Amino acid sequence: MSRHARPARRLGSLPYLRSVAGQAFVLQLLLILVLVTAAVVAVVADARAHSTLDAHRRSLAVAETFAHSPGMARAMSGEKPTSALESHAEAARKRSGVDSVVVFNTRGIRLTHPETPLIGKRIIGPTGLVRDELRGKTISQAFRASQGLSVVSAVPVTKADGTFLGGVSVGVKIQSVHRTVDRRLPMLIGSGAGALVLATGGAALLNRRVRRQTHGLGTAQMTRMYEHHDAVLHSVREGVLVLTADRRLLLVNDEARKLLRLAPDAEGRHVGTLGLEPHLTELLTSERHVTDEVHPCGERLLSVNMRSTGRAGAPAGSVVTLRDTTALRVLSDRAVETSERLKLLSDAGVRISSTLELTGTAEKLVDVAVPRFADIAAVELLDPVLRGEEPEPPYEPLAPHRTAVGGTPAEAPLFRVGERVVYTPSTPQSRAVRTGAAVLLQADPTSAGEWPAGEARRLLDHGVHSLITVPLRFRGVTLGLATFWRARHRAPFDETDLAIAGELAVRTAVCVDNARRYTREHTMVTALQRTLLPGGLPDQDAVEAAARYLPSPGGTGGSWFDVIPLPGARVALVVGKVAGQGLHTAATMGRLRTAVQNFSARDVPPDELLSHMDELVTRLDLEHDADAHGTRITGTGCLYAIHDSVSGHCTVARAGDPGLVLAHPDGTVDIPAVPVSPPLGLGGERFEAVGLSLPAASRLVLYTNGLLEGHDRTTDTGLDLVRRALAAEPDLDPDETCRSLFQTVLPPRPSDDVALLVARTRLLGPENVAEWDVPFDPAAVAPLRAACARRLRAWGLEDAVCTTKLIISELITNALRYGAPPLHIRLLRDRRLVCEVSDGSSTAPHMRRAATTDEGGRGLFLVAQYAQRWGTRYTPYGKVIWAETPLDGR
Fold first, then answer.
1. Is there a contact between 672 and 649 (Cβ–Cβ < 8 Å)?
2. What is the per-residue pLDDT across 277-288, written as a single tens digit (0 to 9) for each?
3. Comparing C-alpha atoms, which of 225, 200, 174, 178 is closest to residue 3?
4. From the CB of residue 88, how many other CB atoms can be counted at a distance below 10 Å?
5. CA-wise closest residue to 47 among 165, 212, 179, 144
């Protein structure tokens, strides 16, 4: 016993903790510490919770008392409610011990506040809380207010008839509520420390008694003392021999006796008399140190280790260990085979999941399986899967498409990719689909009837002797089949291979289903985007336009373009970009494109339109903030340009990244200095517009940055390519320009989707424009009407004279009655006849239906009846009322 106890006394500087008593003492000490700490924390937490609850009650009681106090409604209805209430609110705050008493009106304006500078400002807080306060609801809630984390209660103030006048909001700081609890902490901690000291002393006394009874021994020493001997002799599955210095057998365990086939009386005998193999006898009688030296013993292979037992000059004996390694060779072969299979499955998991394309997923399985698992492999998918749909049972007649094939010679393939295979109910493929389990089949002439028609003979001729077919199932749905064949130079498939094929099928089915879902979602998003982008460009005469859109490599993006005809022989050109990819981005793009069209209908300048769009994006983002899964769209870019074909003037404004390049008819290329305003949704800065004077046949190139930027290209490099491409071919029309830019500028691997819009300007000839300045006198209407009629006849528009004279008469009369000088009229002969009357007033005209007894009020009503379209646009100097009538049925 003393021999085993010595090492424990040499272990570290705290041998006491190695003993059973020491470990029990440490455990008791930790348990006491945890219990005392938990008790103190629980008391503090409970006190804080009650204090917070008391703060809710106190703030609500003060709010209700002050709100219902006599004269409250009268004071809030008076002319100077702040003067009448401020002193009373402060007195109530100090008497009740709360941190704030705030009275506010129905608009949320503070009438009283402990901090005087905040009086007259709106109350702040969470949107829902402020909305409830202004609706006259009684609330009590904790949130972070201007005074810090507080409990705030609000009570409405109403008149006797129930009219809501405002409310009283009372706040109590959580910090001040907890100060009372914090003052008690020293007493609680002191009590806990005293309890800990008393409990520790009792545990120490108990530990001292236990230590005396166990003599300071540790658990490992006691176990070794009482069980070591029996374990070595009877339980260790390794042979142990202990030899004396004169090579006599001192000790032998059961395993060594069995391995060496020793007699029952072997102990005490010399090694040479034990009847062992000569090489074993020679080894045991030597004094060599041996490590894992293999020696045959009968039909066994023994691994031998031998070391000396000599200590401190004592006679040197030896200890020998023996291990049977006969099964190691078999296990080694199996381990290699298992390792190969695990590596196969590991590689399959990595490679099959590396793509989200159906054909690619099937091909990855074939690449993994051939030739490591099979000589030939084929993956066949059902028709609905290829369309991105989920197949529904029954699956018969089974007729999948071969999506991927591998292993057959290219010059004489057994199977062809893309062909449809019809399986009869007797084939293993049909059985696998019916049962949902893998099927193993040996291919021989007697089982040829179980193979698909026409394949049995070809397979047998190529030496195929076995196959495994396994359904690709995920969530109980069959997506297709995977079939593996082996030929004559390899061992046939067995039951172990069934498990491997099943694992491959499971991993493939998951990836096929992911690819199917991706295909479906990508198809849906692409279809949505196609419907949201313009199907074609509208007919108009202001510009000749062409556009291109290229989706992003990773999915559907948010770029768009638009050509929007405007009255007065003008057109709006738009290119925009919503950051991101996917369904949400495509849907947002559609919403913003529609918004641009709606704002364009109001005929506002480009900078004003971008301001409206900025407000819209901000509002949409606020809606998404209320949704935990919402995606923000702040950062959207948009370039908006209006070209006037009468004056040749183009006004441009932009937000964010979309760019503009101008190619002049003489071949020179410029990048107009359009101020770059922040992307939509950021706010805080006004948008600036610039005016450009464009001769006829100028080309405007509007683009998103996907045209310029790539994985290895900067924006500046892309712009240089655009300049060279436009300058090299100045005579290309817009469609040819789009094709040229895509061929010469587009990066090999674009980083984003691309929207490109090219417009070649046109100018309306002076012969198609007629203008008159009109005296601000009703007597001028008749001569002007006659002058317009003469111009229409000169244009050969005899059929439009009557209608146009009526429209002109009504518009000028309306301007004389409700407008202001100067008065001007303009006729434009384009695709339609446009009549414009401008005046110096910005008052908007309103069409109304006059009563039968009214003498007037029918002017704009008649204009709306006879004109195809009419409307109003505002200028820096007034407004323009315009009306369009078709010409020659166009």
1. no
2. 888 888 888 878
3. 225
4. 17
5. 179
Rounded Cα distance, 833 and 525, in Å: 42
> What order of strands is seen across the sheet that includes strand 239-243?
249-252, 239-243, 318-324, 300-308, 290-297
Task: Band the pLDDT of 197: cuts 50, 70, 90.
Answer: confident
pLDDT of residue 61: 83
Most confident of 617-626, 632-641, 662-671, 746-755: 662-671
* DSSP string for 20-42: HHHHHHHHHHHHHHHHHHHHHHH
Question: If we measure between CA atoms, which residue out of 546, 568, 564 comes closest to residue 645?
Answer: 568
pLDDT score at 221: 65
Side-chain-side CA neighbours of residue 598 (13 Å) = 9
- Structure tokens that stand for 612 in this block: 């409206």
b or e along 222-244 (b: 16 or more beta carbons within 10 Å of the residue's beta carbon)? Answer: beeeeeeeeebbeeeeebbbbbb
Give me the residue label for tokens 């080694």: 332
Distance CA 600, CA 610 (A): 10
If one counts every other C-beta atom within 10 angstroms of the C-beta of residue 806, the result is 17
- Residues 6+ positions from 827 with CB-CB distance below 8 Å: 769, 770, 771, 788, 791, 792, 804, 833, 834, 835, 836
**All residues at 6 or more sequence positions from 447 whose CB lies less than 8 Å from its CB, including other chains:** 441
Q: Is 579 left (phi over 0), alpha (psi -120 to 50) or beta?
A: beta
pLDDT of residue 410 exceeding 70:
no
* Alpha carbon distance 238, 255 (integer Å): 6
CA dist 177 and 484 (Å) reads 74
* Beta strand residue intervals within 528-625, DSSP E: 543-550, 558-566, 570-578
Q: Please, which residues bridge with residue 139 across strands?
A: 154
Q: Alpha helix locations (H) across 777-886? A: 781-794, 801-818, 859-866
Q: Which residue's entry shows tokens 């009874």? A: 213
CB atoms closer than 10 angstroms to residue 654: 28
Q: Supply the pTM of this predicted model.
A: 0.54
Q: What is the DSSP string of 874-888?
A: EETTEEEEEEEEEST
Q: Which of 659, 664, 660, 661 is nearest to 648 (CA)?
A: 664
Angle between the N-to-C axes of helices 495-532 and 328-352, in degrees from 0 to 180, rounded to the nearest 10: 10
**In terms of C-beta density within 10 A (0-12 exposed, 13-18 middle, 19 or more buried), how is residue 689 classed?**
buried
CA dihedral 595, 597, 602, 603 (to 10 degrees): 130
pLDDT for residue 743: 92
CB 830 within 8 A of CB 887: no
In eight-state DSSP terms, residue 647 is: T
Query: What's the mean pLDDT in 412-422?
Result: 75
The predicted structure's pLDDT at residue 722: 93
Produce one character per residue of 489-498: b if its CB has 16 or more CB atoms within 10 Å, e if not: eeeebeeebb
Residue that wins the pLDDT comparison between 705 and 204:
705
Q: Kindly report, residue by residue over 776-811, the tens digit of the pLDDT.
A: 888 888 888 889 989 989 898 888 888 888 888 888
Please state the separation of Cα 599 from the chain's center in Å: 31
List beta partners, residue 810: none
Q: Which of 12-16, 440-444, 549-553, 875-879 has the highest mean pLDDT?
A: 875-879
Whether residue 788 contacts residue 800, with contact meaning beta carbons closer than 8 Å, is answered with no
Per the structure block, which two tokens stand in for 4?
A: 């085993």
Edge-to-edge strands, sheet with 439-442:
401-406, 376-381, 477-486, 466-474, 439-442
Class of residue 1 by CB neighbours under 10 A (exposed 0-12, middle 13-18, buried 19+): exposed
- Provide the 3-class DSSP secondary structure of residue 68: coil
Q: What is the CA radius of gyration of the chain?
A: 46
Residue 216 CB contacts under 8 Å (≥ 6 apart), including other chains: 8, 16, 19, 21
Tell me what the mean pLDDT of segment 733-740 comes to: 94
